[in-house]
């Protein structure tokens, strides 16, 4: 890549106008590169796989013997499969064999329980309905019960309160890491069962920073969780889901509970494989260096996280051995990342994160990332 590769200031920009297209540009220390990446739709490939094609169309790098135009093909396959845990299981069509995006098992079970309760209701339903109505119209009791149910489920930073005629809920999701949208379904289901206000606002947090707001009425939730509607693909909804003006979403709330089950100083340990590889080189068909990456992440305050990663070598091919062609590039037993990340929410739907520390085994410095939802301006 040349002696100036990743030397000094470098960075890149990605713009995704469609779910299947990304436009990329970066400066790597040797020159400016630009290209595009195409993605397959979610339903094209089985077993949760996805494929992409990358085309670098332009580069003004003058590095000797470097290809400034190239095409790459990638395939991503989840090692755990598309339905790794019961909370993610979805029925599949035997004819098509692909994910039909039906409601998650949590929503299906909730719907089944509600239907059983409805069918098993006693003959004197009027008295029961009065009792249920009385319980739901006791605002403080319902707020406390909702807080207890959300924390018991495993959500963190749970806050429940009211603002005029609105129920307001904010919480941190550290349960549904494969698809965070699943957490929205579970929380909205619990809100639907407990709310006594005509309107609601739900704010999803990441490291105590608001990232998504869902709002609507009690009738909207009733319609969403109606048995007939749950069978629709996708389910019909009038809910408003937005990532804009989140910094105003929690103004003026009278909190009944605030940040129950705090996420601070709770370490998360993440184990994952790390592989360096070459395919079809002049030295072999396939060469690799495999290691176990152990990542420890500890939230320390709002938006801030300490991130440490250790690499433990497991195996490598002959060409990654000492003295061989790729010997200097194989994994070593080392701590290759010690960083502090700080995220902030900015106006106009902009999210930013600044990271400083040891970025790689031989790199110390900082990075910054910005994310903006440009669709709000179109």
From TrEMBL:
Region feature Disordered, mapped onto this chain: 118-140
Domain of life where this protein originates: Bacteria
Pfam family, one: YjbH
Protein name listed in UniProt: Uncharacterized protein
Organism field: Vibrio maritimus
